Amino acid sequence: MARLPLIGVTACTRQLGSQSYHTAGDKYVRAVAVGAGGLPLVIPALAELIDQPTLLASLDGLLFTGSPSNIEPHHYQGSASEPGTPHDPGRDGTTLPLISAAVAAGIPVLGICRGFQEMNVAFGGTLHQKVHEVEGLMDHREPDDQPLEVQYAPRHPLHVQPGGILDGIGLPSEIQVNSIHGQGVERLAPGLRVEALAPDGLVEAFSVEGASSFALGVQWHPEWQVRSNPNYLAIFQAFGEACRKRAGKR
Ligand SMILES: N[C@@H](CCC(=O)NCCCC(=O)O)C(=O)O
């Protein structure tokens, strides 16, 4: 019997009480299990202590998760963050090198929100540090004083571009998505293809041109209640299918 694909899920470093932990949100590991049909494996944010060749040789897919923390701007030659900005150098040191290595090795990759931003930075792109302060761009942040159901509710339309992965898996040309981010793509990295745009022109999804397997980043959160939104579920199913194909080659 074919085994379940083993799908890495990136963790954040979190301080809980007086100690530090490696954490991955329940909605991400659950979406890997029920949406992609994979066996989730949480990858600690241990940076250079992770033996990446060994890890990549074991995985059939990788999900780069969202996080309230922001990528340290020196990774994209950005100006220093405002004091108090949440960062996670352990996570940056884990995910940024892992993305290009995974894509080069033909391992299916899905990046969500921070994970999407990490993909852009890993391939040489830059980020707006405060999208809401850029003239002409909308405020893409969630109403954080509201219950989670409201924060993650559909917030704006998205224009899916023809001929890409999202179009290919049957997403309509316009869908509604949630929006929970303060940063966003400034300069798209070379080799990334635009898959979807917000009404203000912000890039909300891209794929990696020439990748030998599924390699998609999305700025919104398809993992949120993945089974109740057919467009969100279609993304996880396509990712899972690519991971199963990879696992079948072992
Ligand atoms: N911090 C970045 C990335 C935003 C992001 O990933 N939000 C997710 C929050 C928690 C979660 O749902 O996992 C930004 O602000 O742009």
UniProtKB/TrEMBL annotation:
<dbReference type="Pfam" id="PF07722">
    <property type="entry name" value="Peptidase_C26"/>
</dbReference>
<dbReference type="GO" id="GO:0016787">
    <property type="term" value="F:hydrolase activity"/>
</dbReference>
<dbReference type="InterPro" id="IPR011697">
    <property type="entry name" value="Peptidase_C26"/>
</dbReference>
<keyword id="KW-0378">Hydrolase</keyword>
<feature type="region of interest" description="Disordered">
    <location>
        <begin position="73"/>
        <end position="95"/>
    </location>
</feature>
<dbReference type="InterPro" id="IPR029062">
    <property type="entry name" value="Class_I_gatase-like"/>
</dbReference>
<dbReference type="InterPro" id="IPR044668">
    <property type="entry name" value="PuuD-like"/>
</dbReference>
<protein>
    <submittedName>
        <fullName>Gamma-glutamyl-gamma-aminobutyrate hydrolase family protein</fullName>
    </submittedName>
</protein>
